[in-house]
């Protein structure tokens, strides 16, 4: 994964293991060639995922999977979307940003009634290698809670209640999340291309 | 106007004067019957304008014009939209909220290039009286600056650069703003109905 995010790399590991794909060695960017990542300034998750994967492929010469993901809230016309990670404009460590982004989202939706609190986590995953590129999208529908709950996951997980669940994404185990999450769905859609690569 | 905002009432006065409409007495809600305004929880500017005008009409029995307006930013899929006034979730006086909302918007758009900083001010104006209802929409296209400029106007005026202008809306005189603004356009579209009422 063209990411320094170990949680995303572990997720790819689990998806590949579950699918019985072997013959691939997964490396974090930190293991390979530290370089400045492209800023995520595209208009879509797909644009950003492809840009990151291309940059890492150019820097390393290795087949690269990159992810860009975020939360699309219906009452915000699909925003925060590609701005999910910097919605509050806050700087600081990841946990601090997560708290500020989540608090802002809840404040913005304070007067929005339950029937208009629908949302989706979206992940675009791009695979770039010397024979071509693939980009796929996975979605996970749900709604926005009125208060954060749970300590698992990251980002907006504590306020996202998956459709059919009463718990937030931050209250699910990693295995429960893998079974349905946006990123797992996107990575699963990449499996045919990854199998070919492992060929 | 079903508003405690004297600036909006003055704008309606100017539009009516310029159009030569006489025979109407304009009262602020504060002059008539102080009551709790309906919260602006609709999904559209039109919903909110009609709800406010109906509430004021029911409370006073007088023909009522109400406005709901905000800023639609292209790179935010049309948000802050109906959430413009509480985008940052900040409480406090109007000037404080304006500063917080504007600062948040600029932070969210920090990495968005000029060609994707398009935006529009939008106003829906509703007229409710005993013979019926009319609701109209006015738009004012432009883009979002990188820094606030100017002391005039209110809300997002200091960061809104009207199409064809190099100044922000907060750097225009009231007369310049009236000639092109979203609210003036909406009020102008109400003129036929207001003339009928004055008739």
UniProtKB/TrEMBL annotation, chains A, B:
The active site is at 68 (proton acceptor). It catalyses: dITP + H2O = dIMP + diphosphate + H(+); XTP + H2O = XMP + diphosphate + H(+); ITP + H2O = IMP + diphosphate + H(+). InterPro entries: dITP/XTP_pyrophosphatase, ITPase-like_fam, RdgB/HAM1. Pfam families: Ham1p_like. Binds 1 Mg(2+) ion per subunit. Homodimer. Pyrophosphatase that catalyzes the hydrolysis of nucleoside triphosphates to their monophosphate derivatives, with a high preference for the non-canonical purine nucleotides XTP (xanthosine triphosphate), dITP (deoxyinosine triphosphate) and ITP. Seems to function as a house-cleaning enzyme that removes non-canonical purine nucleotides from the nucleotide pool, thus preventing their incorporation into DNA/RNA and avoiding chromosomal lesions. This is dITP/XTP pyrophosphatase.
């Amino acid at each position: 994964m063209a990411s320094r995010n170990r949680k995303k790399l572990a997720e790819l590991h689990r998806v590949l293991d579950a699918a019985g794909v072997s013959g691939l060695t997964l490396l974090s960017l930190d293991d390979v060639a530290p370089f400045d990542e492209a800023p995520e300034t595209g208009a879509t998750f797909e644009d950003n995922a492809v840009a990151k994967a291309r940059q890492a492929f150019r820097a390393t010469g290795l087949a690269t999977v990159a992810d860009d993901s975020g939360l699309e809230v219906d009452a915000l016309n699909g925003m925060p979307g590609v701005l999910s990670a910097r919605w509050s404009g806050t700087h600081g460590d990841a946990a601090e940003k997560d708290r500020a982004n989540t608090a802002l989202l809840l404040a913005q939706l304070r007067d929005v009634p339950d029937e208009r609190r629908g949302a989706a986590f979206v992940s675009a995953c791009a695979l770039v290698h010397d024979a071509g590129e693939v980009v796929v999208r996975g979605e996970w529908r749900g709604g926005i809670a009125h208060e954060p709950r749970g300590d698992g996951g990251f980002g907006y997980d504590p306020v996202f209640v998956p459709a059919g669940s009463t718990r937030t994404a931050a209250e699910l185990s990693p295995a429960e999340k893998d079974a349905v999450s946006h990123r797992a769905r996107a990575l699963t859609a990449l499996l045919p291309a990854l199998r070919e690569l492992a060929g």
